[in-house]
Amino acid sequence: MSALTKKERMAIPRKPMPVQEPEARVLNFEEVATGYTPEMAQEEAERCLQCKDPKCSQQCPVQVDIPQFIAAVRDGDMAEAVSILKGKNNLPAICGRVCPQEVQCESGCILGIKGKPVAIGRLERFVGDYELSHKTLAMTRAASTGRKVAVVGSGPAGLACAVDLGRLGHDVTIFEALHLPGGVLAYGIPEFRLPKDVIGNEIKSAAEALDIKIRRDHVIGNTLTIDELLEEFDAVFLGTGAGLPVFLNIPGVNLNGVMSANELLTRVNLMKGYRFPAYDTPVKVGRNVAVIGAGNVAMDAVRCVRRLQAIRAGEDGDAGEVHVVYRRSADEVPARREEVHHAAEEGVIFDFLTNPVAILGDESGAVRALQCVRMELGEPDASGRRRPVAIEGSDFELEVDQVIFALGTNPNPLVFSNADDLKRNKRGTVEASDESGLTTKPGVWAGGDVVTGAATVISAMGAGKRAAADIHEYLCGLN
Amino acid sequence: MYRILRKENISDVTKMVIVEAPHIARSAKPGQFVIVISHEKGERVPLTIADFDREAGTITIIFQEIGKSTIEMGRLEVGDSFMTIAGPLGHATEIKNYGKVICVGGGVGIAPVFPIARALKEAGNEVISVIGARNKELLLWEDRMAEVSDQLIVTTDDGSAGRKCLVTEPIRELLEADPGGFARVWAIGPAIMMKFVSYTTKPFEVPTTVSLNTIMVDGTGMCGGCRVLMADGRAKFVCVDGPEFEGHDVDWDSLLSRMTYYHNEEQTAVQHLHGKDHKCRLDKAVEEGVR
Ligand SMILES: Cc1cc2nc3c(=O)[nH]c(=O)nc-3n(C[C@H](O)[C@H](O)[C@H](O)COP(=O)(O)OP(=O)(O)OC[C@H]3O[C@@H](n4cnc5c(N)ncnc54)[C@H](O)[C@@H]3O)c2cc1C
Ligand SMILES: Cc1cc2nc3c(=O)[nH]c(=O)nc-3n(C[C@H](O)[C@H](O)[C@H](O)COP(=O)(O)OP(=O)(O)OC[C@H]3O[C@@H](n4cnc5c(N)ncnc54)[C@H](O)[C@@H]3O)c2cc1C
Ligand code: SF4
Ligand code: FES
């Protein structure tokens, strides 16, 4: 094939992602986006201009060499694409599915100025999936250094740290409180966005290749303290995330039918509650449901609810309603755009500029309605967003029988039991250096949501990798 | 891992098992609990650590078969394994010499109150224990409780053993007979029992520690499903703030109401369990050519 001119490349339309149709997908928990075929991936890769000064890579939190991996896809050399991508990103099949590309790599893409940016995320997913089924790249482990590292938490931060240290020849053990590794990837993000097999396979292949041990059911702070870990290990990395749910302090929060998005998502994803009673953990979904908040967590919760409602009603039945209640406007929604779009297609109702003020119960102590007030946008506040202000006298009742809070999370304090010398700030996050992840406690590093508060998969991975580099330097200096 | 080394049927519906779990045994303390998953499709079931042996690397759990998960757990035999046991979770009981104390156990709650009574006795307290159950069959560990108590009072709802009354009756009598004499009460049992024990001790202003068994999922503070309201309106997470609380601070009605939330689903699960059994037997019959 002769090379295309720049103009010809720019004329190729962005390849859409094949998806399950909304009517079909609300009746199952299978992946919504089904992935590019090799032909589609190559056609999309043709669009890339191979810029001399690529802004896409700069916008990538782990600085993947994007034009290079795309060129390899274009040339059909998938093994080469894998090797370039995995040089920087240990979990491409996961990141390709959940990264907010529109505000990261794709926001830097030159093509995006006039038209649509290259679908970098979709290509990343394609290459990640290719590797999962073809296994072209043998992960190699350097000669053993004899140094032992404990990684606490098996989310993206912990995994990225463990893999990098494992590659360098250190003896790594991951301690995870739950019975399955993956952190939010396993308990939070639903199957229809990130199949559990993908996580399981990425973790398993890395652990096997690098001899990383995973101790499940170990709650650090209880089963073992950080100090006890330091007796056995040369260094400790904390990647325990921010899992503690926040409830609004409004009347009625303890009524039957009020829960955190974490509870719903854990029941559905980690415990496979959507297959109850074949699986033992029940999950309850109301006829009319309000999910409060509009981040990724809210979108995942609302779409799980939608599916459970639709499955219960069957193809012709009346599924009921599910609302996203958000106090700002559509422009301020923090969730990934694609997910908001998918949710709307699936029949989710968005109530913007609406603030809940109380949950009302019936005589049996169950939720009967959500009392709300309409909002308007005022002057920008500290976050730079226009502050929502209540419109007086605009109170109304939204008739619902379930209310789900998806308002963000704080670090879980369990891990800090008996670790008073580990400095934390007011929100409960650990104080750690941005560059190295080093905390105030000797021998202890931290990264991911436990340091930043709820953020993204890729930023947690980046923090894990930076900490791994610093821990490596520290371990090499030990004698 | 998590192999069952010993099993004892304490009553028809109450089983005790000793399980291999060295990582838990080494740090377990009275009052803490574990989360058990029996098999790949199982629920996360919270159970109190009734006893532990650091040297042998084992823990003892005692459970009552009330729903699908516990019925299935009860079917496991020596040599079988649980898929997962995580812990120890929650705070340990604060054991010290308080003086004169009452330990109350209701039904299967007698088991978790036993190590607390024993530890209190060892710490020099004068321990008076009150244990009760619906009937004689549901009563357990009378002899063990007697061993660690200065006085033991037994009650049953139907009078089939001990006094025919609820546990609250002897508690009130004890407190009336020696007002100001008791430093603290521990009560573990059904929520409704703990509620009324708390109401009984309140007028006497005797601090009353209860161990709450709310519905839980993760047991690590992540889901908020175990949250319980305090009388002053604050919410607490039982798995990380508890499981022990001051009984006079608990909003009992909200707690009791929340515990019924999954009632219908729990019944579906039991039906599913029996349905499956039914099919198994049918399959077998077909295989064996029986009509
Ligand atoms: C529902 C949901 C949807 C999301 N969607 C997206 C998305 O689409 N894109 C995106 O980029 N980001 C998304 N995020 C955010 C992203 O998942 C997180 O930022 C990321 O997972 C943080 O990684 P982490 O490794 O710091 O922590 P986590 O993923 O939270 O992992 C922490 C792990 O540590 C374990 N742990 C905690 N305490 C202890 C202890 N004491 N001992 C042992 N183990 C412990 C936990 O069980 C957990 O497994 C979403 C988050 C949620 C909740
Ligand atoms: C910290 C803690 C410690 C516990 N320790 C013990 C113990 O040592 N021994 C023991 O037998 N049980 C204990 N429990 C209770 C035990 O977890 C439940 O009995 C068990 O989860 C029931 O599971 P199931 O599937 O068999 O029944 P389900 O089908 O879940 O429930 C059947 C019925 O039991 C009731 N129920 C459900 N969950 C609970 C619960 N968590 N507590 C009380 N009643 C419930 C409901 O009313 C329901 O209708 C403890 C609970 C907690 C939170
Ligand atoms: S900015 Fe866009 S066009 Fe340029 S190299 Fe990156 S992906 Fe290709
Ligand atoms: S059980 Fe989930 S927070 Fe306590």
From TrEMBL, chain B:
Domain of life of the organism encoding this protein: Bacteria
Keyword Transport: no
Gene3D superfamilies: Nucleotide-binding domain of ferredoxin-NADP reductase (FNR) module, Translation factors
Residues reported in the UniProt entry to bind [2Fe-2S] cluster: 223, 226, 239
Keyword line: 2Fe-2S, FAD, Flavoprotein, Iron, Iron-sulfur, Metal-binding
TM region positions: none
GO molecular function terms attached to this record: 2 iron, 2 sulfur cluster binding; flavin adenine dinucleotide binding; metal ion binding; oxidoreductase activity
Record's keyword annotation contains Cytoplasm: no
Residue intervals of the FAD-binding FR-type domain: 1-95
Sequence positions that bind FAD: 62-64
Cofactor(s) of this protein: FAD; [2Fe-2S] cluster
UniProt remark on cofactor binding: Binds 1 FAD per subunit. Binds 1 [2Fe-2S] cluster per subunit.
Protein's name according to its UniProt entry: Sulfide/dihydroorotate dehydrogenase-like FAD/NAD-binding protein
Organism encoding this protein: Pseudodesulfovibrio cashew
Lineage of the species this protein comes from: Bacteria, Pseudomonadati, Thermodesulfobacteriota, Desulfovibrionia, Desulfovibrionales
